Amino acid sequence: MSAAAPGSTRDTTRDDVPPVEVDGVSVAFGAIKALNDVSFTVAPGSIHAVIGPNGAGKSTLFNVLSGVYRATSGEVRFGDAVLSSMRPFQIAGVGVARAFQNIALSGAQTVAENLMLGRHHLTKAGFLSSGLRLPRATREGRVHGERIREIAEFLDLGDKLHTPVGVLSYGDQKRVEVARALCIEPRLLLLDEPVAGMNAQETERMAGAIREIRAALGISVILVEHDMGMVMSLADRVTVLDFGRRIADGTPAQVQSDPEVIRAYLGSGTETDPAEAAAAHTTDATGSPA
Amino acid sequence: MSDTLSAPAGATRTGAAAPARAARSPMRFLKPLLLLALLALLLVLPLYVEEFWLRTGFAVAGAIVGAIGLNLLVGTTGQLSLAHAFFLAVGAVSYTFISGESGGLGTRAVLRGLGLPPIVGMVVGVLLAGLAGLLFSPIAARLRGIYLGVASLGLVFIGVHVLNTWTPVTGGFNGRSVPEFSLFGFSFGNDDPQLFVLGVPFREAERLWYLGLVLALAAYVFARNLLRSRPGRALQTLRDSEVAASVMGVNVQAYKARVFLVSSMYAGLSGVMYALSIGSIAPESFGLTVSILYLAMIVLGGLGSVAGAALGAAFVTALPLVFQQFADVLPLVSSPGEGGIAAGIAARYLFGAAVILVVLFEPGGLAGFANRFRRRGRAPGRGSPSASPASAADRPTDTDPSDPPAQGSSTR
Amino acid sequence: MTQFLSLLLNGISLGAIYALIALGFVIIFKASEVVSFTHGSLLLLGAYSIARLSEPLGFLPAVLVGVLITAFAAFLVERLIINRLRGAPVISLAIVTIGVDIILLTELIRQIGPDILNVPHPWGGDSVRIGGVGISENRLIAMGVAGILIVAFFVAFKYSSWGVAMRASAEDGEAAALMGIRQGRVSALAWIVAGVLAAVAALFLVGAPTPGVSAAAYTVALRAFPAAILGGLDSTGGALVGGLLIGITEAMAAGYQEQLSFLGRGFGEVAPYVVMIIVLLVRPSGLFGTKELTRV
Known about the structure:
The structure holds three protein chains of three kinds.
Chain A (H helix, E strand, L loop, with lengths): L19 E10 L2 E11 L4 E5 L6 H8 L7 E6 L2 E2 L5 H6 L2 E4 L11 H8 L8 H5 L3 H20 L15 H13 L5 E5 L7 H18 L2 E5 L3 H7 L2 E6 L2 E6 L1 H5 L2 H9 L6 H14 L3
Helix pairs in contact in A: 3-6
Chain B lengths: L26 H18 L6 H26 L7 H16 L3 E3 L2 E4 L6 H25 L2 H21 L1 H4 L5 E2 L4 E2 L2 E2 L8 E2 L2 E2 L2 H24 L2 H11 L1 H6 L4 H27 L1 E2 L6 H14 L4 H20 L7 E2 L6 E2 H19 L3 H11 L28 H8 L1
Parallel strand pairs in B: 9-10
Antiparallel strand pairs in B: 1-2, 3-8, 4-5, 6-7
Helix pairs in contact in B: 2-7, 2-10, 2-11, 2-12, 3-4, 3-5, 3-10, 4-10, 8-10, 11-12, 11-13, 11-14, 12-13, 12-14
Chain C lengths: L1 H31 L6 H19 L1 H22 L9 H23 L14 E4 L2 E4 H23 L1 H11 L1 H6 L4 H23 L10 H7 L1 H8 L4 H20 L15 H12 L14
Antiparallel strand pairs in C: 1-2
């Protein structure tokens, strides 16, 4: 249905996507340093993966990037915007979108309504004009509804637009998360374990979608992911964290052969799928007779 | 992937509007018809029913306005507030002061009043309630929902204190009477002008009935529109996860402050209507009990549902009045002074028990119950999705402690 | 100066009673994530039971049974309702306790009626003077008993297995469960302890200078809510400080009523709420409450 050129032809980066510079960021919770002087740069239009064993500080890093945590020291810059001194809604305003790992959608709202939330900073209707249904509020809703449909169809959600998110399957909900982030029209997309808990087929589809997003929109993507196969095939560059420190940064091939990375992964035990781990965890909690 | 994604240029394309959802059931045609019939019924009711029911109807209309306002704050946004009685009081007192006349009150302090037209009193009452909400909103915006619940208790006690002590304006401990409403010379009292419709005298009760109908309908439509639009979506997301709302670009503090403002304006209008319905205001009409009853309304009706708030308001307001009216035929219930349980008290037992049962067994309230009934057969195996706002969080990867099914199953 | 000292002492004694109530409120929150609006009527239940039982049983047995009744009522609320809602949104939990409060309070007010029930404290309504500062014996004993209970509580909280279990589950419920801590038991015990503390507070709250048990005791008990919020809803130490602060504020505002007359008669009763609102304006999580990690 899209009238625009097929995405794959557009392999150049948009000129309004600046690099992301993470510069000496530390985050401390009391005595615990969740991030310790972490620096790296995300080149415009690249897919940049952040990996590391459990507890390495990946989630903390995402929380700093999206403004949910305040960095104790250091700075995150995205072009002219200093993300580390902005509140989350302001960060969304400069085109940084985040898809949550643990699905933070509103279950009672439909897919369309959840996606429309992504348009929040692109729309203006306030309490008064919405409550009175002034023409400009309804027009706004209609125009943006069009784009919502486009994005939903791109992620295979076109037929589920009016379904409440709460009744969708897990894989569908994960895709709604990504779709909602896309609705922000981001210049930088933060994906927090987008395939966690998905089966092989769903994972393959998601990986394809991420490639497509980058190719069609020319935006930067930062990806936290446990699925190594996916990371290595998808990422242009990889940053490895361990115990809050950056232990490696390079191309997938460089990182894979880095002795410190190998040590970090072997030292912390085998890498497990986080969804599996969490499921086992829950079973223990409820099944334990203690 | 089924399709390709284009650059955001698509957002500005207009073209055919998104196709509406296909007609899925006969309800689609039935519903507007039913609503129309209901409206017609409400319009002709004063021709047929007694004054008692019309007066009850106006009291219900006032409560509906207040309950819708509280539901926007508590049900939609997840901010617990017990301050509603305070904002009702601001509306009621402002109206009485602005549109009331100065005058003596026996040997006590002379009452003051501005004697302005009642419509001015009503509008300014709503605005002042909003202003009071705005003044409190720096707190409301920064507090977590549950802290707000206790903090807002404070406003109720401060409000009652002011009502008791600011005698020239409020009438003090004994309260003061409320000026009749009128609109451009048309009085909502018993005469001036005398009015007959189809041979039925239209006195105060009949006139107020229509006023209540118009105001409640307006309050209802505004809230419905609001919830289905940009601010409404932001508020609902904010309830489910403040972090998610914020990351998606919602200025959480500003929205909390704004919804508090809107909610207190609703309360202000409700307060004016309450004053008109009772005919006098006194401190005990705006105590903690009132806040709690409003909370009961929206819980029984269904948190987050506008129609539910209206249903709950009707139920909670009308029940004690009906009990009282039919005290002599109802078992256990008695008129004041006789043995047995007084009507008001019997109703309160019922509300308390109903609140507990709703939270335990039907978190969607009356609205959720109705939804489930309607949806039966359409979405087999799943309850009403609106019943549990947290349902989306119900995933194995989620370690959030407020994850109902996972933990609830082990304790049952 | 004497007046000031007298008000201070009376404020502290009142504050000690509030601290008992607030402490119960806080441990319920820590153990079961519930903001219990039932607490005021539980306290009234304690006061009413003690007053009603004093005649047939005698004072001390009545206190004992009254405390047991209150603790049992709290236990029932936890078992029958709260326990079934484990993991429900905090706001639903608060609302369900309001439902319980409506029923319990309505019934108690119906039982008490317009009367004031007398509690025959053996120490009666006498006052003592300490260096020129007057205080009722009731309040003096209250201070002592509250002091002992609070110390006992903090020792138990720190060293008993229940205290350790409770702090662990408040810290990280899931991890605590993994280590074999039964949250249901921790929570039930917290409600029982809170019930005991409320009943003891009730005993002194309805003694001199208060004339006895009336529906007004409920309103007084509610002032422990600002105490708990002021200190920080999840801080036991905060409950203590908050209780004292509220008690002193109330006593001072009532004592200096003449000077504060522009605020209206009876300002002492709302002063606690004013102080609470001011504190929350500066510190949204109370004085000692855990601050939010996230920024929105």
